[in-house]
Amino acid sequence: MPFVNYLGWCLTVFLFLAAFSLYRARWPEPERTMPAGWWYQACALFAVMALDYPAGYLGIENRAVTDLTGRVWQTTDILITAAIASLFTMLFVAVTCLFVLLLRRRA
Question: pLDDT by residue (tens digit) across 2-14?
């Protein structure tokens, strides 16, 4: 998978989220009834989910596996791809979530 594909997906998601944020900015801010620590749990969950694949990559042995079409894959190649995808998606979400919470706390 070329790196440009990941950049394209990041740009696509960013554009959709930016459009939604502009639409959502017109609504009044809802009243927050939960304590701040409750919201930080989501950041921690996203970070743990993001680090699951990279952590799984550390202890696996490299083996060849064959899919139904007869193509041979290396298990480490599959896990590296999953690790990169999780870091570009879930870790990005975890860091963004944390920044949003810190900005709201300051306001």
Answer: 888 888 998 999 9
Q: How far apart are CA 49 and CA 87, in angstroms?
A: 9
DSSP labels, 20-49: HHHHHTTSPPPPP-S-HHHHHHHHHHHHHH
User: Letter for the amino acid at 37?
Assistant: G
pTM of the entire structure? 0.59
CA distance 19 to 17: 5
What does DSSP assign to residue 1? -
Greater model confidence, 49 or 29: 49
Tokens found for residue 17: 């989220």
- Total count of residues recorded for the chain: 107
